[in-house]
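This week, work through this protein record:
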Amino acid sequence: MTDPSAAAGGPPSNFSIKRMLPTLLIDVAIPLAVFFVLTACGVSTLLALVAGGLSPAVNNLRIWMKSGRLEPLGLIVMTFLAIGTIASLISGSVFFALIKESFLTASFGLICLGSLAATRPLMFYINRQFVAGDDAALIAWWNRLWQIEGFRKAQRLITAVWGVVYLIEALVRVGLALVLTPAQVIAISHVMAFGVLILLILWTRQHQLARREKFRQEAMAAARRSAATSAVR
């Protein structure tokens, strides 16, 4: 009986969720930690944003020198930090300060939707970074999955959903800033940002697992049909 993961060039046996930890640490956790620590110590927002971008910048340079490729998540974080830097320079009102995070979420949403016109959408690369890390064998396995039509559709759907959701979140942030007090907006924005991210991650994982199970069942059904045809002959 055909194993669908093997049919698609399944991942090596040492595949582990731990592979995503270096990416999360270097490209996400460290930039955020640097920013919050520096601003808490009285460093200006501008300098804190620039310092926060050093970690993903150095990591991308390391990966580029090693393999000739760039990691999209690190590039996105650096882009967000750059947008935040520009926003901090031109911010002159409380309202603008409250909605400047909307520029970040809206930018990510537009990048997601714009990437649907490319050969491969943005979430294909972000998911690959989490799944494969720097492992060349896993990267090659993930790239081979693109040959499967169902996998291509799933990656495009995931990218579209992330893009639309983040555009909606950006609009909701602006709406909240128009009707609520600054303290309320700040409190709600942080909870909403975390909640939206968690829900999207959970939905993405569930959707990909469902697609994988569907592919497994289709492969098993095809194997049974092939065995039945051989038996008749």
